[in-house]
Amino acid sequence: MKLEELLAEKRSTILKRWSGVLLDSYPADTSRFLRKQKDTFANPVGGALREGLDGLLTGLFQSAESQELSPFLDRIIRVRAVQNFSPAQALIFIFQLKRIIRDVLGDVESRGLAEEFSALDRRIDDLALQAFDVYAACREKLYEIRLNDETRRLHLLLRRARLIVEREGDGVDLPDLRDSSPESE
What's the CA gap between 102 and 96, in Å, rounded? Predict the structure, then answer.
């Protein structure tokens, strides 16, 4: 039996365990909610995670190209990037898939599938690298949004304090803060 056939046979078990590993990374109350609430409108995060994992697993098992996996990966990583996870915590679920597959399938080397399994490992590693790129881009965008927000707040504060004066057009003039009393002349 080929690895692809074994994976297809055990797909639902692998998906259930992989989903469990991902959801276990959340606090207990959140994890319980994400598992139980199946309605995508009531639980958009859980829906995005489920759809993402399902699509990733299908693509990995069918040797899909990285562009085909990108939308599914993006769904998961965008959610993880805005949460309080370190990069390692946010992405560990991808590496855990290797262990889950080995646990579910058992000894693949004795079945003569070592080479096929090695190719699957490489695809999972490539997926992890792609996930890191997506994670880094999402975090960069978050920091950019925060910086822009803080800049707007500072600008508003300075304008209210009358430390900057708006000119017609795009420019901002800073008033001359030197002492303007006659004695200073």
Answer: 10
Type and span of the H or E element at 165: strand 165-166
Going by C-alpha positions, the residue among 64, 57, 52, 49 that lies closest to residue 10 is 57
Q: What crossing angle do the helices spanning 87-105 and 66-81 adopt, rounded to 10°?
A: 130
pTM of the complete model? 0.78
CA distance 140 to 158: 27
91 Cβ partners below 8 Å, 6+ apart?
77, 80, 128, 131, 132, 135
pLDDT, tens digit (0-9, with 9 covering 90-100), for 6-46 = 999 999 999 999 999 999 999 999 999 999 998 889 999 99
Phi, psi of 166 (to 5 degrees): -80, 135
Which residues pair with residue 172 across a beta bridge?
166
Structure-token pair, residue 161: 């304090």
Give CA–CA dist 130/59, Å, rounded.
14
**C-beta of residue 113 within 8 angstroms of C-beta of residue 53:** no
